Structures are given as C-alpha cells and as structure tokens.
Amino acid sequence: MSKVLILPGDGIGQEIIIQALKVIDHLNANDDLGMELTHGLVGGSAYNETKSPLPPATLKAAHECDSILLGAVGGYQWEGLPRDLRPERGLLGLRAEMDLFANLRPAILYPQLATASTLKKEVVSGLDLMIVRELVAGIYFGQPRGIEERMGERYGFNTATYTESEIKRIAHSAFKIAQKRNKRLCSVDKANVLEVCELWREVIIEVGKDYPDVVLSHMYVDNAAMQLVKAPKQFDVIVTSNLFGDVLSDCAAMLTGSIGMLPSASLNKDGFGMYEPIHGSAPDIAGKDIANPLASILSVSMMLRYSLNQTPLANKIDLAVNRVLDQGWRTQDIANPDDSIIGTNQMGDLVVAALQ
Ligand code: NAD
C-alpha cells in the first residue's frame, strides 16, 4: 500500500488533477494499485485559506507519504503578495524540505503529435529522452553572491560550486534511471573551461564504475544545445548541473511543441518524489474545461515507474494515452486545424476507458 499526497494547487491544477485521480481510482478498483490518497493545500489556494502558501499541515502530510502528485501553482491574484507568501514559495519550500535534488524532465514526442513541433517531423518523431537536472546546488545556491559597489562601479557575482557528494548522488540517480531505460547516459558539462565541471566529470566517471551496464558519454554544454536541436534522438538520458539543466530541459521540452503533454519528477535520495506537469497554472484558460490533462495523467505514470515500483501499471497508463491519441482525440493545445476538439473532462474519461 502506498500513500500519496494530492496537491491540486491553483488554476488548471484543480481541473487536471481531477483527471489524474480518475485514472488512480480506476487502477485502485481494477488493477490492485493499492494507492491511499490524502489531500492538501499548496500555493495561492493554500494562502487564501491559511495565509501561507505551504501550511504546516501540508508539510506534515508530505513527510508522512511516499510521493506527492501536484497540479500547478500561481495566478494573477497573488502576484502582489510579498515574495515569501507567493504561491511559488510553496513549491520551492516543498523541494527544499524534502531535499528533492534530482529533477527528471522527459521530453517525449508522440508520433501522433509530430506536427506540433517546430522541428522537422523526421528529426523529432518518436523522440523520447530524459534530462536529469541537479536541482538544489550549483551556481543558483553557491556563496558568495551579490551585487556590490567595487572600484567605483557595480559588480555582480555568483559562485558555481559542487561538492563531491552532491555530484555523486545525482550521478547515482541518473545511472539508475538509465538502467530503467535504454542504458545510455550522457553527462553534460563545460569541463574544458570550468574547474567545477572538471570535478563533475571526474566524479561521474567514478560513479559510472558501479554501473557497467550503462554506456557513459560526455558532451560540452554548447555542443549539447546544438545536438538537441540537430539530432535529439541520439540521447537517452542526459545528466547535468542545475544551470545547464534549467536551459537544456526547456529547450528539450519545446522540441515536442506541446507543454500540456509533459510530466516531471523531483526525487530525493530515498526515491521519494514530487510529480507534476511541467506547465504552470495557466490562469488564461482556467475553469474553462479546455486544459490538457495528459501531463498530469502521465505524472501518475512517472510516479509509478520511479517511486512506487509499479512499472507494469505505468506502462498501462502510457499505452492508454497512446491509444487515445491514436484514436484522434485532441485537446485544443495539441489539435491541428481540422481536428475535432475535446475538453479536459472528456480527455480524462477517454484515458480511463482506454485503460480497460
Ligand atoms: P503556464 O505554463 O501556466 O502557461 C503557458 C501557456 O501554456 C499558456 O498560454 C497556457 O494557457 C498554456 N498551457 C499551460 N498548460 C496547459 C495545458 N495543460 N493545456 C493547455 N494549455 C496549457 O505558464 P505561465 O503563463 O508563464 O504561468 C502562469 C502561472 O503559473 C504563473 O503564476 C507562474 O508563476 C505559474 N507557474 C507554475 C509552475 C508550477 O506550478 N510548477 C510552473 C510554471 C509557471
């Protein structure tokens, strides 16, 4: 029996999570999923009720569960709040509290949606790569940092740091993920220029000795950026630092051209994970029954695969999504001009039907 905390959050988060719950309910009832759900508040909706974007009850529930399924946070109405009360602080607070250092961002282009990409169909059709980004260290957190007055002008500075143990733990996560996929891992760095990357490469190679079944390669980040748009299907799993991962994962996501299709995960060393779509709360379309719920449904699949050890049921969800796409069903964000468009609810129902 696994315990999962459901945090719908704000905007379309509320609508898409309902569709993911339909899938969980179905698998609980028909496939012995054995998932026990608790529900909590995060983001702007949590602020409205408790005056905090991450209430103590949510933190407590997070510590008591095996995984979190999150919708999205944010919205115009909370933009004027002090920074530490804004919805996004709820998300960052959860990442920090649960030490979620490994961010997994798959970029999958379903062949049925190949025309959604801005790249040529043959370059991206069938694309399936995973970027593993270090999430809680590196230049985003390194000290010293700041903007100061020096020698009569303003001087801005940050520090790129990685300890051996920070690199080791992300390396282990990435190698284990590669083992569950096609057993190829490409480590992206800038070791020709930066000492911190020299250490990164050394440690990745050392950790790689524990995973002889995974083929390890290395690539400089500038070349990786080029290769991602030139021949993205050459990659299976990419592991990289916080800064490089931030840039490359957005680039990879956009290869697929469909923000409503992509799930993500943030994991800690115990395999505990927070799973969520990569998109935000989309206030422009919230409450209209038009948001694509597939990223949220696929987040459940990722959770089953990477935290809850239920790969066959993860495969079952992926297959159901594929079936629905094969049948031609599209929400507006992934539709071609001639497609007939369905809403959030109907898409959720069709995926459940395809599970049978
Ligand atoms: P967004 O991802 O919410 O929306 C970008 C565009 O994509 C919008 O046009 C939106 O309508 C569309 N879109 C997003 N998800 C979709 C879906 N499932 N189906 C169909 N269309 C979809 O990004 P934004 O507009 O920059 O941000 C809106 C709010 O979300 C902000 O408050 C931002 O801070 C927050 N945000 C939250 C997260 C998160 O919770 N992880 C991530 C990014 C942004």
Report on this model:
The chain has 356 residues and is of the alpha/beta class. It folds into two domains: 1-101 and 268-356, Isopropylmalate Dehydrogenase (3-Layer(aba) Sandwich), CATH 3.40.718; 102-133 and 170-260, Rossmann fold, CATH 3.40.50. The protein contains twelve helices and twelve strands. The strands form two sheets. Strands 2-1-3-12-11-4-5-10-8-9 form a ten-stranded mixed sheet, sandwiched between helices. A two-stranded antiparallel ribbon has the order 6-7. Helix 1 links the parallel strand 1 and strand 2. Helix 1 (12-30) crosses helix 10 (294-306), helix 1 runs parallel beside helix 12 and helix 11 packs across helix 12. It is globular and about 60 Å long. The two termini are 22 Å apart. 46% of the residues are buried. The model has no long low-confidence stretch (mean pLDDT 95). The structure holds nicotinamide-adenine-dinucleotide. Residues 12, 72-75, 88, 91, 259-260, 276, 279-285, 291-292, 295, 333 line the site of nicotinamide-adenine-dinucleotide.
